[in-house]
Write a structure and sequence with these properties.
By secondary structure, the chain is α/β, with parallel strands linked by helices. It contains eleven helices and eight strands. The structure holds 1,4-dihydronicotinamide adenine dinucleotide.
Length: 297
């Protein structure tokens, strides 16, 4: 089969001045996409800003014969999101692909967490994806084409100590992904999410040298496929890192039905309620209702 090409497709990649975003930008550019390299250029905790990071990646892309433009706006405001999309439209005339990747960390245990650690994290990861995607949404609807990849995290999907702010934002992105998949279906807009693991400046203290093989370049292949015209799925979440890719899904057990359900009946049937045998993986709310009716009938 032919390689996955992106000739003439326009991709916005947020937080692409380093780490995973840089890797996605270089790969899509190499395959012919025109790239908006967005990055505020701040620290891991979101302080400060600089034009250097985004510009360096643009220079790298151009040196390799690709096309890219830098954008330094923050994803964390509606104005910033609109300006990022405007950069794509003004420079390349459209938006085909968005990779919502920008992110910051402000970890601490829940008992110590302050609003200053909650709000900026929600703003960048969760609201940022709204602010960047929304101005492009109508354009994608009008052109009948779009590919959106949101960067979630196992920290939210499965849970991790010290990351209630980050985990909530990242699981929020799963909800955004699933609802946008439903809303985008009739206009050929496919929306998926990844839960990556890679050694970047965000994780280097956590991982140390032992994790050198977890390169950002080993996360990019699934992003590239999900961003491609041939992407066969929407509303899905993929775990990726170190060369392994797997699907994460949300399933529901058949459960227990009793027309006169009581708290005692819940207690007495708790093993059955939790039993994963015969579970279903609904694609949307309607399918979940259908599964519920199956147990009830
Ligand atoms: P990174 O720190 O190298 O990249 C994040 C980039 O986002 C930085 O270049 C930063 O300047 C930029 N950024 C931060 N706030 C911004 C804003 N308001 N507007 C525009 N750009 C902004 O870290 P990494 O690891 O490459 O992270 C990329 C994404 O992957 C993040 O969303 C992160 O939460 C997620 N992730 C990473 C994992 C890993 O193992 N590295 C694990 C799970 C999720």
């Amino acid at each position: 089969m032919a390689d996955l090409g992106f000739d003439g497709k326009v991709a916005i990649i947020t937080g692409a001045g380093g780490g995973l975003g840089r890797s996605h930008a270089l790969e899509l550019a190499k395959r012919g996409a025109l790239i908006v390299v967005n990055d505020l250029g701040g620290s891991v905790d979101g302080e400060g800003g600089s034009h250097t990071a985004a510009q360096k990646v643009v220079d790298e892309i151009k040196a390799a014969g690709g096309e890219a433009v830098a954008n330094y706006d923050s994803v964390a405001t509606p104005e910033g999101g609109a300006a990022i999309v405007k950069t794509a439209v003004d420079t390349f005339g459209k938006v085909d692909i968005i990779v919502n990747n920008a992110g910051i960390l402000r970890d601490t245990s829940f008992k110590n967490m302050t609003p200053d650690q909650v709000n900026p994290v929600l703003d960048v990861h969760l609201r940022g994806a709204f602010y960047v995607t929304q101005p492009a949404w109508q354009l994608m609807r009008d052109q009948g084409y779009g590919r959106i990849i949101n960067t979630a995290s196992a920290a939210g999907i499965f849970g991790n100590f010290g990351q209630t702010n980050y985990g909530a934002a990242k699981m929020g992105l799963v909800g955004l992904t699933r609802v946008l998949a439903v809303e985008g279906a009739k206009n050929n807009i496919k929306v998926n999410a990844i839960a990556p693991v890679a050694k970047t400046r965000m994780t280097e203290e956590l991982f140390g040298d032992a994790m050198d093989k977890l390169t950002p370049e080993l996360v990019t292949p699934i992003v590239t496929y999900l961003a491609h015209e041939d992407c066969p799925v929407t509303g899905e979440v993929y775990s990726v890192g170190g060369g392994r890719v797997a699907r994460i899904f949300i399933g529901v057990t058949p459960g227990h039905f009793q027309a006169d359900l009581t708290p005692e009946a819940v207690r007495d049937n708790f093993d059955k309620i939790r039993d994963e045998t015969g579970y279903g993986v609904p694609e949307n709310l309607n399918e979940e209702m259908m599964l519920a009716f199956k147990t009830m009938s």
